[in-house]
Design brief:
about 260 residues, alpha/beta, Spore Coat Polysaccharide Biosynthesis Protein SpsA, Chain A, seven-stranded mixed β-sheet, about 15% strand, globular, Nucleotide-diphossugar_trans
Length: about 260
């Protein structure tokens, strides 16, 4: 599915949407429908051994489909997504969860700073809009998000309103600069790839987004969220040790020397 309505021009950046999918049969069509087709060139779905008809629906929609033979985890799914997008010549990669929790209609806003080469990544933030609970985000999840984001800002010495949104876009430069293949196969991958980018001088921006919490939308429960938070704290500790040359971690080293600013 190439050139989804975009004008064919060699000066345009090749924009690829990636969908890390697991049991997304009931929401995939809605998510696909809301993607602005004139803003993207390809849509890739990587299925992590779903137990429903996610693969069949993706193929019916004409998406570029890859499938894991066994369930490998959210982080592992992203690794495949980014690797395949880069192989297909992506200049910009936008992650859209196929559970319809994030509104893909704002993809053009996410893309704008990247298409102008003003930054290396753009994250959607539920906190920038001012009313994150309007989308029915659980209060405990909101408080945990704010708490962890404050600690992350203090450690990374940058300011982002949210580190835990799954709606984000990366430049090819960012993805080629970091060793995302060394990251976790679980949910903490999302924090690790940010830590890698900051360690290698990547510039990140945010835009305001809204989210929807409903039965079909995927969301980890309280116990798994606590474990996720502990793994984030472990990542931050490793980052501090690495930055201060106390203990170096290959995970935070640049994938190629010229990427560091």
């Amino acid at each position: 599915m190439e050139r989804l309505g975009r004008e064919n021009s060699s000066s345009r950046k090749h924009v690829v949407v990636i969908m890390p999918a697991y049991n997304a049969e009931r929401t995939l069509r809605r998510t696909y429908r809301d993607i602005p087709k004139d803003a993207v060139d390809e849509i890739i779905l990587v299925d992590d051994a779903s137990q429903d008809r996610t693969l069949e629906v993706a193929r019916e929609l004409g998406l570029v489909v890859y499938a894991h033979e066994r369930n490998r985890g959210y982080g592992a799914n992203q690794k495949t997504c980014y690797a395949r997008a880069l192989e297909r010549g992506a200049d910009v990669v936008v992650m859209v969860h196929p559970d319809h929790q994030y509104d893909p209609k704002v993809i053009p806003d996410l893309l704008e700073p990247l298409l102008r080469d003003e930054c290396d990544a753009v994250f959607g933030s539920r906190m920038l809009g001012g009313r994150p609970l309007d989308g029915r985000m659980p209060t405990w999840k909101y408080l945990g998000n704010v708490f962890l984001s404050a600690i992350e800002n203090a450690v990374f010495l940058v300011y982002l309103t949210e580190y835990h949104s799954g709606f984000r876009a990366f430049s090819r430069r960012y993805l080629e600069a970091v060793r995302f293949d060394l990251n976790s196969d679980g949910f903490v991958f999302d924090t690790e790839i940010i830590a890698q980018g900051i360690a290698n001088g990547m510039k990140i921006r945010e835009i305001a987004i809204e989210t929807r919490y409903f039965e079909e939308a995927s969301s980890i429960g309280f116990n798994r969220s606590v474990l996720y938070g502990l793994r984030i704290l472990k990542t931050l500790a490793k980052f501090i040790l690495h930055r201060n040359n106390i203990w170096r971690f290959g995970q935070f080293e640049p994938a190629r020397g010229e990427c560091r600013r």
